[in-house]
Structures are given as C-alpha cells and as structure tokens.
Amino acid sequence: NVCFSLCVCVYPRSVLCNDPDMADIPVNVPLDTAKLRVEKTAVRRIPGEAFYYLSELRYLWVTYNSITSVDTTSFYNLKVLHELRLDGNLISSFPWVSLREMPSLRTLDLHNNRLTSVPTEAIPYLVNITYLDISSNKLATLPSDLLDLWPPFSGVAPSINDTKVVLGKTDDLRITTDVGSLVIHSKCFCLVRYLPWKRLGRI
C-alpha cells in the first residue's frame, strides 16, 4: 500500500511514514488524510506551514525522530486537529503560540524531550487542552499561576498566588502553596503522566 515515496497509506485515511532514510517532513500526503504518523525517521525539524494543506487532519504523530526545531507556523491551518504527539524527540523549546492554529486540539504529548521550562506566556494557549504530557523532560518548575489560570485545574485548586510544581526525582512530585499542599490524583488530569504521587509536602 505504498501511496508515495517512503510512506504507506492505511485504510481509512491514515498515512504512516517510518522509513529511517526520510530526512524531511513529507509534502505529498493525500489531501483527505485524517491521521498522519511520521515515526522513527531522520527528520530533524518541522518547517513552517508543513501541514497547511491537510485541512482534514485530526491526528498528527511526529514521534521518535530527531526533531530539534519546531516553527511557530508549523501547524498552520490545522483547524480540526484533535491530537498532536511529538514525544521521543530532542525538542528543547516548544512554540506554544502555535497552539492558536489548532483550536480543536485536546491532546498534546511532549514527553521524552528536552524541555527545560513551560513559560507563563504558554498558559493562554493551553485553555482547550485536556491532556498534556510533559513528563521525561528537563523541567525544574512550572509557572506559579498555572493552577489558577488553566481550566483543568482552576475549578479544583483554591486561588493561590504563589504556587510551584517542582519536578524532582521520578518518585517525587511536590506542590507547595501558601495554604498547604494540593494533591493531584493519578486518575484525574495529571501534568506528568506515569509519575507516582508518593511524596507531597511543603518546600
């Protein structure tokens, strides 16, 4: 079912590109594709407007490649995209503003990259996200007002002006506030997936 060079078309409307010799994001994907997977290739960057012509795309997985660079316009015109997975790459900085191009996005998977921070400026672009995975990165802290402003938490947490989520060892998630500790249950919306909530306390 090879539908174009280095990629396979899988019924219905799904395309898989996993040739280790692929060095660039494919540009000749069928226009009606709903799911595109670019996995385990030599691709190092996602250029601007890389998928602009795929207006029906709902699932985009660019996983376990060598991506180091994502342009602010990489996801231009992906109005119906529901799921974006970029796990297993080398991304140290994610263009959060690019989420504006994906108003239907609900799942964002960035785990196993090299992110060092989630800036406060990112929060407004996360309002529609219901599943975020930023585990296995190099994060030290998250924005102090994340719990106040991000809808998945704002309805649960008390109003807190000085909150930090500190990610230390894999068995340690500590959330300290001026009113005590907040427990995030593993069956609820979790910032860090697969992380057992063993120790909670004041820092």
Could you write a compact summary of the structure shown?
The chain is mainly β and 203 residues long.
Explain this structure to me?
The chain has 2 helices and 13 strands, in the order ββββββββββααβββ. The chain is mainly β and 203 residues long. The longest helix has 4 residues, at 146-149.
What does the secondary structure layout of this molecule look like, with pairings?
Elements (H helix, E strand, L loop, with lengths): L1 E3 L2 E4 L3 E4 L17 E5 L5 E2 L12 E5 L5 E2 L12 E3 L21 E3 L21 E3 L12 H4 L1 H4 L9 E4 L5 E5 L2 E2 L22
Parallel strand pairs: 3-4, 4-6, 5-7, 6-8, 8-9, 9-10
Antiparallel strand pairs: 1-2, 2-3, 11-12, 12-13
Question: Care to count the β-strands?
Answer: 13
* Proportion of residues in helical segments: under 10%
- Tell me the distance between the termini: 56 Å
Uncertain ranges: 155-203
Could you spell the SSE succession in H and E letters?
EEEEEEEEEEHHEEE
Keywords:
4% helix; 203 residues; disordered C terminus; 3-stranded antiparallel β-sheet; single chain; 8-stranded mixed β-sheet; mainly beta; globular; 13 strands; 2 helices
